[in-house]
Amino acid sequence: MILHIICGLLMFQVVWCGECTRNSLNWYKCNCQFGDWSAFSPCTKQCNGYTYRTRSMWLYENYAPCPFEFTTCATEECGYEVYYCNTDKCQNGGTSDNKNCFCPTGYYGSCCEQVPPGKPVITVPDTIVLGNAVTLTCTSKGGNPEPTVKWFKDDKEITTGVSSKTVSPSTDRYTVTSTLNFVASLEHHLKVITCQADNGLTSPLSTTEQLKVNFAPEAPTLDGPTVVTSGISRVWTCHSANGYPAGVMTMRNQNTNTQFGTDKFTTSTVDNEGGKSYTVTGRLNWAPVEANNGHSICCDVLHTTTLGNAPKTKCLQISVKPPLVLKAPTIQYKVHLNAKVTLSCEVTSGKPSQITWLKDGSKLDIDSNPRLSGGTVAAPSLVIIDVELADEAGYVCQGTDSTDKVTIETTESIKVALICIEPAAVQNAELTVSGFDPSNTATYRCNDCYVKTSGDLLLSCMRGGIWSGVVPVCTEINHCLSQPCIFGTCTSELCGYKCACLPGYKGINCDQEVSCPVVALQNGAIMAGDKMDTELTQDHVLYNMDISYGCDDGYVLVDQKGGFLTELVRHCGETGQLTGDAPICAVYNLCATTTPCEHGTCKDLPGNYHCTCSIGYQGQNCDQDITCAELTLPNGAVMYKPDRKIGSVASYSCNQGFNLADGDLSSTCNSVGEWSGPLPTCKGVSCPDHTLENGKVTTTGLTFGHTATYSCNSGYMVANGDVSRTCASDEYWLGKMPVCAGK
């Protein structure tokens, strides 16, 4: 009988089966045999399990050497095999020791496959409006096992309106999305909503969101004046209460559709109950003008999250009256002491209820001062009579508007200042005035030849319009006081004096003796003295003296014309000149004694001579040759034979290329020093223009030295003659004229 034994898991622990060694003593004698291996079993765990297989063994019927026992044929390792499996299945970075997974921080489970859920994320609508349906979503991603998502408000779980959805991707991680649906009410406003995710691995994860419910503010209110004065700034206030978030407030002119800028309109926002709602206040500071009469001021509150682009509006119509305008046409008055002045104040717009004048900032009591008048609604200008020093001040005209009770001043102070009058004119003096205000000056200047005898030349304008000092007096200067006339009488004149000199004196101051100059007499002597018996050795004689003349032997006394004088006495007069003309001591018979005429005949004259010159000579003594003028001939030359004296001949020749034309070929110098005949000219040589039969003549010119070049037409050639010819001085072309003959 064969014993069939299954080798199975009969041991208490699993071991790796080594190679079956078949070392049993009974293996071969008992004829032990193995069956086929079974298939391996599935791995016992997802991570770090084991798998095994078995086979059967058998032997013959029991007999003494082969007992029917398990150990007869083999040990247990020959009947089964066990192996570890899924040792590489640790997830999320876990490590294995073939029996267990060791997970990194944040991961759990036998395979490290368990993960806490991700922090929940709440999605809230951009805007939550009071009364609208609202859906909140909370999403937790990546948990394993699947987490549970819950909603809380004020630490109480919300179960109404909650729904959840789970997504299980291939990674075995779960995304859970929970939605919370409700209708927004004021109870939800600023409440904190909590979303919690939990899968049991860690403490629950939470996220919170504060709900902000938007609700429209109340209708705005607009306060401010409805009747205003043009140009006067007024304030209008707009309130918009209890909105969330705060509304955007603007103000505009409805009629011009113009929004007021930040220079006129400002807003402020106040939170209510710690920010549960807001109140917006706008302030418009604006000065309407008459053109805005009947316009409406509108306050617009825009709350786009609840009202869209349609604002809540409140309007207020205004009435604009003309402004009170005072004008001072003149702001500087310069008046004289004791004069009258009217300070003009004009009402150019509006109607004042009262006119007030200020003097240096203090109210002026017009009624109590008899020198003042005006300053009323009917007559706003201020009149001051008998102006005095105390009236110098700054004045302001003020008017009170009856509507707004606003006081209007002139923009500048009206100044009243006392000035000096024009200073008196002074005879024989010039006046220069720098001005008539205090500290200005008036300067007098006496005319030339006048001097100040009293008063002041410089006056100053003092406060109160009074000139300092005394007006001067300018008197003509007496120039004779210094007795300038030494030997004469003095007469004072404007800007000078005149001296009447005594006989024998001269000069501006009669301080010079009168004397007459005396010219020495050649070949003679001049006598002076009471008896004319003393020879004069000076070059002058004094006033009222006489002189006489006498000639040496061989000379005779003659006048300037050569007339003989027997005696000559000259007297020194008041003018400092001798009477008559000075005489001459002339040689008697000069022709014989001096023979002055070199080329002529001499004739004696009283005290002189006359020369008659021979032909060819001239001059007082006939000692100068008569010659003809130097001649010039353009483009030629002049030759003199022997010179240019009387009888000499001038011959003419032309340069090469020029020929004599017109005039004479020569000229003679005549007795009066002139050349005979007309002067010739040198005319340039010119050769005749010509042509070449059956050919062409090309010239560089027709005057002397130019060339003519010859060429024959096609079919012809130069048979004889010269190809080129030159214009000669005889006005003919040099060489032979060529001939063009047929080839």
Describe this structure in words.
With 743 residues, the chain is mainly β. The chain folds into ten domains: 83 residues, no CATH class; 94 residues, Immunoglobulins (Immunoglobulin-like, Sandwich), CATH 2.60.40; 101 residues, Sandwich (Immunoglobulin-like), CATH 2.60.40.10; 94 residues, Immunoglobulins (Immunoglobulin-like); 48 residues, Complement Module, domain 1 (Ribbon); 34 residues, Laminin (Ribbon), CATH 2.10.25.10; 75 residues, Complement Module, domain 1 (Ribbon); 34 residues, Laminin (Ribbon); and more. It is 1% helix and 44% strand. It has two helices and 69 strands. It starts with a strand and ends with a strand.
Layout of secondary structure:
Blueprint: E1 3-7, E2 33-34, E3 49-59, E4 80-85, E5 95-96, E6 101-102, E7 121-123, E8 128-129, E9 133-143, E10 148-153, E11 156-158, E12 162-167, E13 174-183, E14 192-198, E15 205-210, E16 213-214, E17 221-223, E18 227-229, E19 234-243, E20 248-253, E21 258-259, E22 265-272, E23 277-286, E24 296-302, H1 304-307, E25 312-317, E26 319-321, E27 325-327, E28 332-335, E29 341-343, E30 346-349, E31 352-359, E32 362-363, E33 372-374, E34 382-384, E35 393-401, E36 407-409, E37 414-418, E38 429-433, E39 441-446, E40 450-454, E41 458-462, E42 466-467, E43 473-476, E44 488-493, E45 496-501, E46 505-506, E47 512-513, E48 515-517, E49 524-528, E50 534-535, E51 540-542, E52 546-551, E53 555-558, E54 569-571, E55 584-587, H2 590-594, E56 600-605, E57 608-613, E58 617-618, E59 624-625, E60 636-641, E61 649-654, E62 658-661, E63 666-668, E64 681-684, E65 695-699, E66 707-712, E67 716-720, E68 724-726, E69 739-742
Parallel strand pairs: 8-16, 18-26, 28-37
Antiparallel strand pairs: 1-3, 2-3, 3-4, 5-6, 7-9, 9-13, 10-11, 10-14, 12-13, 14-15, 17-19, 19-23, 20-21, 20-24, 22-23, 24-25, 27-30, 29-34, 31-32, 31-35, 33-34, 35-36, 35-37, 38-39, 39-41, 40-43, 41-42, 44-45, 46-47, 48-51, 49-50, 49-52, 52-54, 53-55, 56-57, 58-59, 60-61, 61-63, 62-64, 65-66, ...
